[in-house]
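Let us practice reading a record.
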Amino acid sequence: MSDMDVVCIVEKEGIHAVEVLFVRSGKQIGQDCIFPKHAKGKPSKEVLSAFLPLYYLGKDTPKQLLLSEKLIDRTLIASALDTKIIDTPQKDKRHFLKIATLTAEENLKQHLISRFTKRSQLMQLQKTLNLSSLPNTMECFDISHTMGEATTASCVVFEKGLPKVSKYRQFNIKDITPGDDYAAMNQAVFRRYSRLLKEDKPLPDVVFIDGGLGQLNQAIMVMDSIGIESIQLVGVAKGEGRKAGLETLITVKEGKTQKINLPPHDQALMLVNHIRDESHRFAIKHHRKKRAKKRQTSPLESIKGVGKLRRIALLNYFGGLQEIQKASCDEIVKVDGISKALADKIVEKLRR
């Protein structure tokens, strides 16, 4: 059996799912499921005809495509993709089409359940926070550092209850006292929304701040200073023992603080925890990367005038960074290429 892709389309409630099975040398080696956008209410054959050229654009098309539908423009598509299209399979290929159909139906079912669940969560969150409309765009901030080292902030973006990874943002926090989470939150929130204002981009409906009233107040101060009133700010304070499901939501309206405690399995709280956990994951990932890079960087690299060759000469002469830190100016100047002025600068920098 030659290489082929099996492409099946199913539809329910106006939503289409296209399942692609990759069959090579008679064995299924992978699959892909796509939910075409802007296809609601359109016939499956029309959706599949539009899907195939777009999906295989820039890809190596297999020798055969086995389709679940008989397309009117089958000859044209086959010619454009330089492949053979089969829509009436023989017995040895039918079971692949059956697998693709069953898989597509299950994926579409889960997709519809997910959409229903997310909408119910958004409706419950709207009710909990007393919002005038569904919170379609939400963002969440988290701060991450190791005892003040390599402080970073994350901002994750959710649209219609689902993560929009392409819109995530990271912030390297600078010029603050190490470990000052309030200052870090202030800086991250200011940088994020002052830029959105400057670029005239849409603002989110709700912004979650991972932390208690102190962190939330920093965000409120920033929003007041740059003139943003439309965003609902919500603090997410950890519960007793930092257990999931025991968080307290904090809002401040007209100077009055409101604390909201929800049952662990409340739909709104589950959505908030999903957003908060994603923000935490993203912040830690970036922080660890920054910390590792910082720890792999020699302090010598930050000294102006000490390039790669001079760093190598210093390390070879003294045997390591600790020995350089202990050396006097008179000892350092003995290294080839190191002047008295540069030696003074090295001593001053390494002994700070």
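A brief commentary: The domain at 137-295 is CATH 3.30.420.340 (Nucleotidyltransferase; domain 5).
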